[in-house]
Structures are given as C-alpha cells and as structure tokens.
Design goal:
The protein is of the alpha+beta class. It is built from 2 helices and 12 strands, in the order H-H-E-E-E-E-E-E-E-E-E-E-E-E. The longest helix has 27 residues. It is elongated, with a radius of gyration of 41 Å.
Amino acid sequence: MMKPLGNPMQPIWIKIWIPALALLLVLGCGEEPDRKIAGAVDLSAIGATGAKPSEGSEPQTPPPLTDQQLAEGSRTDVDDHPLINEDQKIVHREIIIPKSVAGKWKAVKILVRDKSDEERNAMQTVKLGSTFQLGDSGITVSAGEFFPNFVLDKTRYTSMGNTLGNPAIHLVITENGKEIYNGWTFAKYPGLYAFEHERYSLQLMDFIPAPTS
C-alpha cells in the first residue's frame, strides 16, 4: 500500500506559499545584476570636480595680443585703443608726465640708419628736450618726452609707472623747416608708428636715467 505524499496534517497555505516564495527568490536573483547595470555611473566620464563635461567642449584661451596692443603696453586701467581717424577728425591727445617719471630720465640713444650706405649708420645720444641733425639732409630730430612704460587712452599719452615695460620716445622731425613726423618711437616694436623716410630710419635703442643725488 503506497504512503501519501507529504504531511496530510500540514496546513494548505504552507503548501501554496512555499513554492511561490521559492519562485520569487529565483526571479529576484536573476534581475539583480540588471538593476545594478542600469543604475551604474560611468566614472571615466566624470572629471576631478565630479561634474561630467559637456560634449565637444574645449578649454577657452584668450586670443593673442596684436603688435599694436603690445606696443601700447599693459593697459589695465585705460580704454581700448581709439581710432586714429574718427569721423574724419584727428584725435588729439594730451601728453601727461606722471610724478613717478618726471625728472627720472636724462637722455636716450637712437640708432640712425642710412639706407643708402649702412657704413654711415650711427648711434646718436640725445638729451630729452634737445635736437640733432641727420647729416646734411636738412632733417632735424627733436627728442621730447620719454615714457618707460607707454600707454594711451582716448585723451592722453602717459606712462604706467617708471618701470621699463614699454619704452617710447616722442619725436618731432622736420625737413627744411617743414614738419614731416610727430609721433612716438618704440624700443620693443620699432616697426609700429615708425618714422618713414626714403633715406633714414630711426630706432630707440637705450635709455639714460637722470643722476640721483
């Protein structure tokens, strides 16, 4: 005679829930890896700050300074370079000598180049406020203000301190009594605002401080 399967006295709810619970455990173990993958964070795409960089973003670098900006020096407290010719009117600026510069410089050295004969090139030492002649050409050069760190804005030329950051000398040049140049000559950037002549060119080379007592 065959024995009945299981315990005939076992409650019916145990017979139903034990298999169901076993099935839930099996299904739960099979879904756990999927849940971890779905919620995973790609650490390789996160920077040191914890923020994910935007796609296609690149570090922004400022554009390089132009030669003109370099010649005008470091101008953190002045406006951008104004147009030389605004509404067909020449912009006139006042020359302002700061107290830190006044009386601190005695003379400059200017290289005079003779385009017709390089052997005639000469170094000319000229005191501020004085003049010199270019040979027998009838050309006179007057040396005006010297600024060790030349800057400008819309109304003035001046120097940002007495440090040799952007040396420049104001020159007034005449030929047979007629003014042919009135502007600045730069030591670091001789090609900007340069004195143009078919025979001569000038370049600021050195600067002589005034003697201190």
